[in-house]
Design brief:
Layout (H helix, E strand, L loop, with lengths): L2 H8 L4 H11 L3 H11 L6 H13 L3 H24 L5
Helix pairs in contact: 1-2, 2-5, 3-4
């Protein structure tokens, strides 16, 4: 699931904030997506798993850290917004 599209659809009044956050996350998206796909919940074959893990560990630079922090910020914001803005829907 594309959480950016989900948040934009569920919280259209926060679209600008979501899009600005995505722009800050996007540069590190490829490396994080490869890691997620190869080492996440449905891990790939062992060599792909270790390859993806190694790539994240060796390229774990400011760009990746900033993307993870940005996602964490948006995630926490939307968790709070669910409780305060979606009372009837939930």
């Amino acid at each position: 699931m594309d959480v950016i599209s989900l948040w934009t659809a569920v919280f259209p009044e926060h679209k600008q904030r979501i899009q600005e956050g995505w722009k800050r996350m996007e540069p590190a998206c490829k490396i994080l997506r490869v890691f997620r796909d190869s080492a996440g919940f449905h891990a790939d074959k062992p060599m792909k798993f270790f390859g993806a893990r190694l790539e994240v560990r060796t390229q774990f630079d400011a760009e990746v850290i900033a993307a993870l922090q940005e996602f964490d910020t948006l995630f926490k914001f939307h968790l709070h917004a669910e409780g305060s803005e979606l009372k009837e829907e939930l």
